[in-house]
């Protein structure tokens, strides 16, 4: 079996579940392109912990971790089964890498997990293992987590990081819209795409100092950190494909990244 890619998905507002828009179209296309995974391991920007926590539930509940939204959102369930055996393997891989994981046998799927998964796999028939991220440890930590999980891809497990390529909710009331975009969004997403194309992991890990408008695009790190987990899972040599899924509300860039392991270059005779 060829290794599956790893994915980074910008999941947007919870309202994406009701109005999928362009990101829904792109994820539906990806679902057709990808081989059917045996399971999904997904790290959401909405599950934060000091060290990696792995969800080992046999039937993860649908967590509605938001308020003030329409009743229809709270009625949605994503009844995908869990995968305790895969969770145990995730634990083993992270432990072997010295990352001190713990298991939570009751953890469900927050909206950072079930919203994009519902767009990728609406039948909810693929087992899912949720994984926490560590918001205070910087990009190098999720990158190391992803590197540790890379072997899962050889077994048909789809590794996903779910966040947002730009995420500044202070701009909700700034008057931005499809007609008036926040000025920092496109320079930031262009810088990420450029460094991904160049394979410049060092610059990407140092985005806080090097990327234009980094603090404006991400006042806090948690929604970008899953990108590094997906990047790490692709291995040391990778090909990154940016999938443009638009800019919601003028300030939430909805980019998706697909990471494939790049074939080693064949030396000339």
Automatic annotation (TrEMBL):
The keyword Cell membrane does not apply. Its cofactor is Zn(2+). InterPro entries: Extradiol_dOase_DODA, Xdiol_dOase_suB. One of its GO terms (molecular function) is dioxygenase activity. It comes from the Bacteria. Residues 25-237 form the Extradiol ring-cleavage dioxygenase class III enzyme subunit B domain. Gene3D superfamilies: LigB-like. It holds the Pfam family LigB. Keywords: Dioxygenase, Metal-binding, Oxidoreductase, Zinc. The keyword Oxidoreductase applies. SUPFAM superfamilies: LigB-like. Belongs to the DODA-type extradiol aromatic ring-opening dioxygenase family. PANTHER family: 4,5-DOPA DIOXYGENASE EXTRADIOL-LIKE PROTEIN (PTHR30096). This is Dioxygenase.
């Amino acid at each position: 079996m060829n290794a599956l890619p790893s994915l980074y998905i910008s999941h947007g507002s919870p309202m994406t579940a009701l109005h999928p828009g362009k990101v829904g179209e792109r994820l539906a296309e990806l679902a057709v392109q990808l081989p059917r995974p045996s399971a999904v391991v997904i790290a959401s920007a909405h599950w934060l912990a000091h060290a990696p926590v792995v969800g080992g539930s046999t039937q993860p509940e649908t967590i509605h971790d938001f308020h003030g939204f329409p009743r229809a959102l709270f009625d949605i369930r994503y009844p995908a089964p869990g995968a305790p055996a895969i969770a145990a393997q995730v634990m083993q891989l992270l432990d072997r890498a010295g990352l001190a994981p713990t298991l939570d046998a009751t953890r469900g799927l927050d909206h950072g997990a079930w919203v994009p998964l519902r767009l990728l796999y609406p039948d909810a028939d693929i087992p899912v293992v949720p994984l926490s991220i560590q918001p205070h440890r910087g990009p190098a930590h999720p990158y190391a987590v992803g590197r540790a999980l890379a072997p899962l891809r050889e077994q048909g497990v789809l590794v996903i990081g779910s966040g947002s390529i730009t995420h500044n909710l202070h701009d909700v009331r700034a008057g931005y819209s499809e007609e008036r975009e926040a000025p920092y969004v496109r320079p930031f997403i262009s810088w990420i795409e450029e460094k991904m194309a160049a394979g410049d992991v060092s610059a990407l890990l140092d985005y806080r100092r090097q990327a234009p408008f980094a603090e404006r695009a991400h006042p806090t790190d948690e929604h970008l950190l899953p990108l590094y987990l997906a990047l790490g899972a692709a291995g040391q040599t990778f090909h990154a494909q940016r999938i443009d899924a638009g800019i919601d509300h003028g300030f939430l860039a909805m980019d998706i990244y697909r990471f494939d392991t790049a074939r080693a270059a064949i030396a000339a005779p």
